[in-house]
């Protein structure tokens, strides 16, 4: 019974202190004599405990700031590479050269292990290119991509095996994750990685979209010729 009374009293005291956080300012001697239990056993004064809590918070804030800085640097590098890719695509003088520039940039600048492009339009100059497939938009082979080609939303992560087979053919077992960029009316871009964690659901796709838009715009210049 006494234990119950003490527990209730302690809770009431704690609740009262929460409502009056400046209480200890009126009684500094009480603040200095209070002890706070530590995880490793020993006790410490309230002042030293609060100081340690503030230091822990400061370390956490510093860590978060460092993470934000690292992410900002990564995004800056991606922005620069995307801009350089856009300029490179705009400099090309044919659809074939535009696709070559895209494939080369994805492999070299964006470190793609297996780059694959599916084009709905024939590109005779690239008949021997191992990274290009020409497939008619109404071909049954593209049935697994029907939904993503309709909404144009990029897909990142581990694709269904039927998609991988179409994209990577004999090398299908080498790919563990993919960034897939559907280009409605134009085709598909796939960047495959040997690393299963390189591309994952939920990762940002802004730069993928920008690259896809640049390629579509670059190719459109030659469709009217």
Task: Kindly describe this structure.
By secondary structure, the protein is α+β, with helices and mostly antiparallel strands. It has two domains: 2-61, no CATH class; 79-223, GAF domain (Beta-Lactamase, 2-Layer Sandwich), CATH 3.30.450.40. Helices cover 53% and strands 14% of the residues. It has helices at 2-19, 23-26, 28-33, 46-91, 95-108, 146-151, 161-168, 206-223, and strands spanning 35-37, 43-45, 114-119, 132-134, 155-157, 177-183, 187-193. The strands form two sheets. A five-stranded mixed sheet has the order 4-3-7-6-5. The protein has a two-stranded antiparallel sheet with strand order 1-2. Helix 4 runs parallel beside helix 8 (206-223). The radius of gyration is 30 Å and the shape is elongated.
Q: Kindly report how far apart the N and C termini lie.
A: 93 Å
Lateral arrangement of strands in the main beta sheet? 4-3-7-6-5
- State the helical fraction: 40-55%
Q: Give the SSE order as H and E letters.
A: HHHEEHHEEHEHEEH
Strand content: 5-15%
In CATH, the architecture of the largest domain is: 2-Layer Sandwich
What class do helices, strands and sheet pairing give? Answer: alpha+beta
CATH superfamily of the largest domain: GAF domain
* Mean of all residue-level pLDDT scores: 86
Biggest beta-sheet profile: 5 strands, mixed
| CATH class descriptor name of the largest domain | Alpha Beta
Tally of alpha and pi helices: 8
Total strands: the figure is 7
Query: Taking Cα atoms only, what radius of gyration do you get, to the nearest Å?
Result: 30 Å
């Amino acid at each position: 019974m006494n234990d119950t009374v003490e527990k209730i009293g302690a809770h009431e005291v704690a609740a009262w202190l929460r409502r009056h956080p400046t209480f200890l300012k009126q009684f500094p001697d009480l603040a200095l004599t209070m002890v706070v239990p530590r995880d490793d056993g020993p006790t410490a004064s309230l002042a030293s405990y609060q100081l340690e809590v503030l230091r822990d918070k400061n370390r956490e804030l510093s860590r978060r700031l460092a993470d934000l800085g690292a992410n900002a640097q990564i995004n800056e590098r991606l922005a620069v590479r995307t801009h350089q890719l856009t300029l490179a695509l705009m400099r090309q003088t044919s659809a074939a050269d535009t696709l070559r520039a895209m494939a080369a940039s994805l492999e070299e600048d964006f470190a793609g292990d297996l780059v694959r492009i599916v084009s709905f339009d024939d590109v005779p100059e690239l008949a021997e290119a191992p990274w290009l497939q020409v497939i008619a938009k109404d071909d049954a082979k593209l049935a697994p991509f029907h939904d993503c080609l309709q909404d144009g939303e990029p897909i990142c992560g581990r694709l269904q095996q039927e998609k991988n087979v179409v994209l990577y053919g004999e090398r299908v077992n080498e790919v563990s994750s993919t960034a897939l960029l559907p280009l409605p009316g134009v085709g598909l871009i796939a960047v495959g990685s040997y690393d299963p964690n390189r591309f994952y659901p939920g990762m940002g796709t802004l730069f993928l979209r920008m690259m896809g838009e640049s390629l579509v715009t670059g190719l459109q210049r030659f469709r009217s010729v």
